């Protein structure tokens, strides 16, 4: 099995390592007879060699002095607190060490699994896969709110032929949509006559004046003309999916892709665990002893 290198991992592991180094530094630093310490807290010493790498490359002069001074100050403060903590929780050190070991083991396994997933997980999810998953599990995707499909145009107050255009907004035929689009290019500041996305009332209110209509008045087949100063909005509600009904595929597609990837991840990790166990078993790398 390939051994994975975690030296370049950041984030949680980085913070864990830094904290771990701090603990080692202030509790386990041996006496360095050839060095003069730069600080002491009780029986713990900080030596110049402990400061190696503290100052970033390229930092010199007063800035480097300040960084080192701050580091020493933090070391002293933490060492003082740690000494007080050790005095007051001496009876719980075994339990604390067990928790540290458990956390360390969990962290190592987690980062190994993450590296394995990053290397081996197939992240390509096809349209056929997401569609098939949706069809097989559609009853698991229920809407938490009403959603709508709309066609709309934001027009100037003097835009021509409004009655005719308004009467065609519910027509989804290619010919009519093309005609509406040509009209929109000439007279609209924004329009959409072929949008297949679904929107909640709140989402619609972010770019259309639907608050003036009221959600209770929305229904498929209704067309509204809303005038505001020198602007006219034509809004047609083409389709409606009610709350608690099956959510449209377009809304769930991204979520389904993530569900498929999560299942692949679980399958990959399960396979890895089995392979590692079988390998150790075949090589007699572990034994379980009976007390009987």
Please describe what this structure looks like.
Among the domains are: 12-93, no CATH class; 144-241, Chitinase A, domain 3 (Roll). The protein contains eight helices and six strands. The chain has helices spanning 12-28, 61-88, 93-120, 127-137, 162-168, 174-187, 201-205, 249-282, and strands at residues 39-41, 44-46, 147-156, 188-192, 223-228, 231-241. It has a four-stranded antiparallel β-sheet with strand order 4-3-6-5. The chain has a two-stranded antiparallel sheet with strand order 1-2. It is elongated. The relative contact order is 0.10.
Physical arrangement of strands within the biggest beta sheet: 4-3-6-5
Q: What is the count of DSSP helices, taking H or I runs of 4+ residues?
A: 8
Low-confidence residue ranges = 1-29
Kindly name the structural category.
alpha+beta
Note the run of SSEs as H and E: HEEHHHEHHEHEEH
Strand residue content: 5-15%
Which radius of gyration do the C-alpha atoms yield?
33 Å
What characteristic shape results from the CA principal axes?
elongated
The averaged pLDDT comes out at 88
CATH architecture of one domain: Roll
CATH class of one domain: Alpha Beta
**Largest sheet composition:** 4 strands, antiparallel
In helices, the fraction of residues equals 40-55%
Number of strands: 6
CATH topology of one domain: Chitinase A, domain 3
Cα distance spanning the termini: 36 Å
Please outline the helices and strands.
Elements (H helix, E strand, L loop, with lengths): L11 H17 L10 E3 L2 E3 L14 H28 L4 H28 L6 H11 L9 E10 L5 H7 L5 H14 E5 L8 H5 L17 E6 L2 E11 L7 H34 L10
Antiparallel strand pairs: 1-2, 3-4, 3-6, 5-6
